[in-house]
Amino acid sequence: MKIPLPENYSYEDIAEVKDDTLYIHKFCFEDLMYDLTYALKDCSKCYYCGKPISREKSTLDHLYPKDFGGPTIPENLAICCSSCNNIKTNMTEEQFVYFFSISDDEKKKEFYRDISLHNHIFMKWYGPIIPKEWISEQKAEKITVYFFMGKGINGKTYKKVEKNYKKYGRIIRPIIVDRNFKLLSSFNVLLFAKNNSIDTLPTIVLENVELD
Ligand SMILES: [Zn+2]
Questions:
Q1: Cα(146) to centroid(ligand 1), Å
Q2: What is the pTM (predicted TM-score) of this model?
Q3: In angstroms, what is the span from residue 81 Cα to ligand 1's centroid?
Q4: Is residue 159 part of a domain?
Q5: Tens digit of pLDDT for each residue in 109-119?
Q6: Is residue 21 assigned to a domain?
């Protein structure tokens, strides 16, 4: 997939857009994606409730939650107020819009219970709750890692990947790579796959991004 890019964009000496490609010179993928989102999207009002906000008071929400495999890329980030962000927690945008429209508190709770169960079953059977066209299955051996990210097998993130693998019987969080299959995000997922002889991984290939 291609991520949206502004014509003129640079992020300190870390990244820049040239010829419709985002070149990343130094690694800090998530911060870069957050900054890019502010460059691309309206940050004057909350995406969900429409309340005016300032950039300083705004937060970024994953439209498809991280726990469902939602990646940190501009398509999946909404600029919103902290109150909406806190209420939304683990719901997709669609689920949240419906949740928002329910006025009765008991009904709200009931709806949240129902969709939590639905989301769990969905992930067990089908995998990440994100648009299918974003992901492809890639061989783990094809991915190159140029640097070490995170704490590895003793870290919390690795344990979370392990826990979710037991829970769903599959990997939910896709790894993100550039167009040359250099790893940009989710090192722990790749590490877990290698340690457990998992050959293929849900992968988001960013075709207009290059790590140099
Ligand atoms: Zn809001």
A1: 39
A2: 0.90
A3: 4
A4: yes
A5: 999 999 999 99
A6: no
